[in-house]
Design goal:
The complex is a heteropentamer, with two copies of chain A (about 250 residues), one copy of chain B (about 260 residues) and two copies of chain C (about 240 residues). With about 250 residues, chain A is mainly alpha-helical. Chain A has helices at about 5-45, 55-75, 80-95, 100-125, 130-135, 140-170, 185-195, 200-230, 245-250. In chain A, α1 (about 5-45) runs antiparallel to α6 (about 140-170). The longest helix of chain A is centred in the first third of the chain and has 44 residues, at about 5-45. The radius of gyration of chain A is 25 Å and the shape is flat. The N and C termini of chain A lie far apart (about 80 Å). Chain B is of the alpha/beta class. In chain B, about 35% of the residues lie in helices and about 20% in strands. Chain B has helices at about 5-10, 60-70, 80-90, 105-110, 150-155, 170-180, 190-200, 215-220, 230-240, 245-260, and strands spanning about 20-25, 35-40, 45, 55, 75-80, 95, 110-120, 120-125, 145, 165, 185-190, 205, 220-225. In chain B, the strands form three sheets. In chain B, strands 5-1-6-13-7 form a five-stranded mixed sheet. In chain B, β3 (about 45) and β4 (about 55) form a beta hairpin. The radius of gyration of chain B is 19 Å and the shape is globular. In chain C, α3 crosses α4 (about 115-125), α3 (about 95-105) packs parallel to α5 (about 140-155) and α4 crosses α5 (about 140-155). With about 240 residues, chain C is an alpha/beta fold. The chains are: A mainly alpha (about 250), B alpha/beta (about 260), C alpha/beta (about 240). The interface of D and E includes residues 76, 104, 173 and 181 of D. The structure holds adenosine-5'-triphosphate (ATP) (2 copies) and magnesium ion (2 copies). One adenosine-5'-triphosphate sits at the interface of chains C and D. One magnesium ion (MG) binds near residues 43, 44, 87 and 164 of chain D. Chains A, E: Belongs to the binding-protein-dependent transport system permease family. HisMQ subfamily. Chains A, E: It is found in: Cell membrane. Chains A, E: Pfam families: BPD_transp_1.
Chain lengths: ~250, ~260, ~240, ~240, ~250
């Protein structure tokens, strides 16, 4: 592996690397965000307690079966095959002509959603039952409880898992070159193919991947600390003087 | 974020692509000298759809001639090898020119034009190795040999008696690394790739055989892939017939000279 | 006297363990009822059943004439009429003190944020926690958490309050304050059900005292009866051991 | 009298909030000291500092002649000599009742499982929780959890016990039992520091009472002095409000 | 896609599919187990509180930097490149001839370890601080606290995430064909190449993948329920009779 060669290669090919990295980032950022939303939604639905009424119970059961099938199906099959089926299959069977980039984002989103749904389930499991009860006791329904009390706590706990998923997405976009999306990995392979070198182009790609993933890690760490809230609280007003109920009533 | 819009607008007319005077040709754009990716339109490079780069190489030159003969505008679609056939079948592209051999099995799924290049099998080995001066494939008895997955390169290895056949590799760069690292002793390839590889990497030597692999012509030939029962077959064959053997050799020589790594 | 809550033959089992056995009693509007009894006798479970945090295994709970165990009944709107102070406080970990008291008002009662904050501040002042509005649950002492829990429940301005040992973490001074608050609330017509271990407190605050023992109501009566002339042997036994 | 724990100029701040200000006091071997004071005055923080669950911001804690804040000191072996009953109980969620009392003995004191279970059963019997050995924390009532927490700490057979409101969730009957246990333990020479809000309990059990107010020790003395003739105005004020 | 063709293909190629699936399972099972152990270990080490003594502090800091680098490096670069570098690189640089399968397991393990370390960190974050304090109060050191109290609770909460990771491993072994490991995806591609059909062989592969991943899901769900513990407890002995301390002392 020679350094001059690498520098020369970068000089010659940097637009290819950069555009590839840009496409990778675009697909993985949007895919992760949409996927996270899907995962949270699935988490909310899958934790709905069994309703009393029969009609509702059957409806919920049906939705749950659909959700579980969705999760198991997309987790359970390779994304490359999904990509081929969705992109080429939809054209074959229905003559639908999808934009490659949109197809890529859709595929990454629904895959991420399936994985995130499981993270959310684990996260909800780890929340103290008292938090649910307190929310129910003030009259919140399931959705309100999840949105206002449970999920904000879950999100913080699953941020590391989300980071993992984001990083996996950055790397997994590479399989999307079967539908002709020219992201970083495909571009690197191209450079490797035409330069008859392997380690050098992939070395550069690794650095680009690493810069992207590490940036993501740092951003998520920052959010983690933010969500933690301030370590100390500041007191308001004058030194403690327990208010008399009587006084309060007057005011 | 590059090229999203372009890709959207050019593919929007898919389905009635023929009327729009566009010929969509699929290739990996990463298999020199047949096809590669370059940054500008030097040496007759053609813009890649939905992308800022250009494709060049022998396949591109042939595709240009086909497009010209059909009176259509050439659009190159860069797709992974495994995506080429589904792409063709689903109508995302009209033609494959990707150094693809018209084997019997492939013919079950897609149609092929007449051959537009014929080469022969060679072996790529490391310079200075004991195989450097081999003349017969049987000299590779006991050697660790591999070839590209899903190609006839891999299949013909069995003709070497006592060969230590290694698992196939799904791309050339990986095989080159394997060779360079000494994990394998050689890989089967075709002459053009062999010339490119050995000229690009001084550690590699291409071995040409006097007693070579026995193969049907279809296994070393290269033809354009077309959708089954495509009406383009006859027209393309006519166009290809107009390219003389000499001209083909000239185009290939130019491609080998122009390929990015050869500079 | 109008019955706000009427509990009929209420039963609750966890597996084979029968925690509540055929509970029968009712609470009138504006009444303050204290529930006393030994540890594990089912006091918390009773409150939790009334609030439907535990699904009763049998029996009926009639709230203002309607059986809330009926499948058609809207649990959530029922619960907004009941305030609950948990034995373990259960403050929302992702909200600060003020927000703990505000979120329910805004999301459930649909009050505006300003209105909700005004109400919250009023009750936080009552329990002496108005200076801590920025603090999170993990930064509070036990007694501070308990007071916030009380303020949170009161902020919802319910018709019935269920208190599960609301003074367990409070110092005597604070217990006195809370007692005062409760007496005032009682005057406004708020119905209260209070589980407590502080007999003095029960004596002071309650109209009626319920003594629970091993899942059944062993004795019910006005505080004078229960504390001075209990009719049941078990009640006498229980109260005898109280520190004089 | 031999000082077991000697606290000198102890300070603790959370951010700008000074919770303990220059605390100075010591406990002799076998002594039972009760700490009283209003909510948020720093009682729990003091206990937690002694156990090093909070890192003091300043001062010294001398345990049997050694400054345990010294970096060289082995915190873990020090902590095995201190038992702690938390205000929030903090039972191990992944262990059942018996296992809660056993795991520390086996892993830290290196007792055999049989030995540890014998000890655990002894103390679980003392607090009346021997029939619940299979239960998990989430299946217990408040008082039951608290009793298991007491049994867990006692099972470690420490030299000093730190109790943070150990009777807050207990019924009067059970409080009497715990009081009895404590008195017996005191006779065996166990040193005890008890944070409590039950003045009757403090009066009964303690050799000395510490009254804390806003992060400082306002008054220390035998229970007769504190409860009958407090020298400080603030103490009088605090006790005055206690329900008679 | 014709059914007869698929059946014919299965009849002709089932040993290839089965061997591929077997190899995939072998690598992913062992890789996930070793990876989970690495992740838990990393979790234990990364949560050690800052020691008082300087020497120890520097040591811990160093170990943490190494761990973080390990995690960020292996998460941040594509496994396919790692595989090439480890397998061919070691042959190139040191002439080491690694067994392909062992190399594959090593690669999957260290990758899984890097991801699991983040799951564990998220899981530890979600455990109530009181649990740590109670463990410390009985004199447990950090390792004892983690092993006896915290990790058992963490493991249950991160089981869904572990399931995800296992499934990802089953699918990600596919990139290992660059070092010549003939797992399911590679075998499928071989069949696809021979027959020059795409959808049919991949359809069969998808079913095999799905069977594997769904089995994993079911097994993990079973463990989840087991770790939850029984819903109710059984009481021991005769009806409650609070023991008198005096009585106890006698016995
Ligand atoms: N989820 C549960 N699963 C099994 N048993 C439970 C559960 N919750 C409570 N119990 C049992 O039910 C009984 C009554 O509990 P409850 O919390 O109602 O007691 P309590 O009267 O409030 O006692 P305390 O005064 O100690 O709080 C106890 O023996 C307890 O172990
Ligand atoms: N982690 C923390 N961060 C910030 N402030 C804290 C923290 N822990 C405690 N405090 C503050 O320190 C003060 C003393 O708390 P502490 O728990 O010692 O009180 P206490 O005397 O035990 O009260 P109580 O009787 O209510 O339990 C309180 O005002 C509390 O808000
Ligand atoms: Mg209770
Ligand atoms: Mg406290």
């Amino acid at each position: 592996m020679s350094l001059e060669w690498i520098i020369q290669m970068i000089i010659n090919n940097w637009p290819m690397f950069l555009r590839g990295a840009g496409m990778t980032l675009l697909i993985s950022v949007i895919g992760t965000i949409i996927g996270a939303i899907i995962g949270l939604l699935a988490g909310v639905i899958r934790t709905i307690p069994v309703p009393e009424r029969r009609a509702k119970r059957i409806l919920l059961k049906t939705v749950n079966v659909i959700l579980t099938s969705y999760i198991e199906f997309f987790r359970g099959t390779p994304m490359i095959v999904q990509a081929m089926v969705i992109f080429y299959g939809s054209a074959l069977a229905f003559g639908i002509d999808m934009d490659r980039t949109i197809a890529a984002i859709v595929i990454v989103s629904i895959n991420t959603g399936a994985y995130m749904a499981e993270f959310v389930r684990g996260g909800v499991m780890s929340i103290d039952k008292g938090q649910f009860e307190a929310a129910h006791a003030v009259g919140m329904n399931h959705v309100q409880t999840m949105l206002n009390v449970v999920l904000p706590q879950v999100i913080r706990n699953i941020l590391p898992a989300t980071g993992n998923q984001f990083i996996i997405n950055i790397k997994d976009t590479s399989v999307l070159n079967v539908i002709g999306v020219t992201e970083l990995y495909f571009q690197t392979k191209t450079v490797a193919g035409i330069s008859f070198k392997y380690f050098e182009p992939f070395f550069v790609a690794c650095i680009l991947y690493f810069v992207m993933t590490f940036t993501v890690t740092l951003i998520l760490r920052y959010f983690e600390r933010k969500l933690e809230g301030p370590e100390n609280y500041s007191m308001i007003g004058q030194p403690a003087q327990i208010t008399n109920v009587a006084n309060t009533k007057e005011s | 974020a590059c090229g999203t819009k372009e890709s959207g607008s050019t593919t929007s007319s898919e389905g009635e692509g023929e009327q729009k005077e566009v010929l969509r040709v699929g290739m990996e754009a990463g298999y020199p000298p047949f096809n590669w990716t370059q940054l500008d339109d030097a040496n007759g490079g053609v813009k890649i759809e939905g992308n800022a780069e250009y494709a060049g190489g022998y396949d591109v030159e042939i595709a240009k001639k086909i497009a010209e003969g059909l009176g259509k505008e050439l659009v190159i679609v860069k797709t992974e090898w495994d995506g080429l056939v589904p792409s063709l079948q689903s109508g995302k592209i009209d033609v494959i020119t990707a150094g693809m051999s018209p084997t019997e099995e492939r013919k079950e799924s897609i149609d092929f034009s007449d051959n537009y290049y014929t080469s022969n099998f060679v072996m790529i080995v490391k310079k200075g190795s004991k195989y450097e001066n081999a003349t017969s494939i049987q000299d590779f008895s006991g050697a660790k040999i591999t070839g590209q997955l899903n190609t006839s390169h891999y299949g013909v290895i069995d003709q070497i008696e006592g060969v230590n056949k290694q698992p196939a590799s799904d791309n050339f760069p990986a095989m080159r690394v394997a060779l360079e690292s000494g994990v394998i002793d050689g890989y089967v390839s075709e002459r053009p790739e062999g010339i490119s590889a050995s000229s690009a990497n001084p550690n590699f030597v291409m071995v040409e055989f006097t007693e070579g692999f026995v193969a049907d012509e279809e296994e070393t030939a290269v033809a354009a892939g077309l959708k089954k029962d495509s009406e383009l077959v006859d027209k393309i064959n006519e166009i290809l017939a107009d390219i003389s053997e000499e001209e083909r050799q000239n185009i290939m020589d130019a491609a080998i000279k122009n390929q990015p790594a050869a500079e | 006297m109008e019955k706000v809550i009427d509990i009929q033959h209420l039963r609750k089992s966890f597996g084979t363990h029968e925690v509540l056995k055929d509970i029968d009693f009712s609470v009138a509007k504006g009444e303050v009822v204290c529930i006393i009894g030994s540890s594990g006798s089912g006091k918390s479970t009773l409150l939790r059943c009334i609030n439907l945090l535990e699904r009763p295994s049998g029996g009926r709970i009639i709230y203002q004439g309607e059986n809330i165990l009926d499948a058609k009944h809207d649990i959530h709107s029922y619960r907004t009429k009941l305030g609950m102070v948990f034995q373990q406080f259960n403050l929302f970990n992702n909200h600060d003190v003020l927000s703990n008291c505000v979120v329910g008002q805004v999301k459930v009662l649909k009050r505006t944020k300003e209105e909700a904050e005004k109400v919250a501040m009023k009750y936080l002042k009552v329990v002496g926690m108005d200076r801590y509005v920025n603090a999170r649950a993990r930064q509070l002492s036990g007694g501070q958490k308990q007071r916030v829990a009380i303020a949170r429940a009161l902020s919802m301005e319910p018709d019935v309050m269920l208190f599960d040992e609301p003074t367990s973490a409070l110092d005597p001074e604070m217990v006195g304050e809370v007692l005062k608050v409760m007496k005032e609330l009682a005057e406004t017509g708020l119905t209260m059900l209070i589980v407590t271990h502080e007999m003095e407190f029960a004596k002071e605050v309650s109209d009626r005292v319920v003594f629970m023992d091993k899942g059944v109501i062993a004795e019910v009566g006005p505080p004078e009866q229960i504390f001075n002339n209990p009719t049941q042997e078990r009640t006498r036994e229980f109260l005898k051991r109280t520190l004089k």
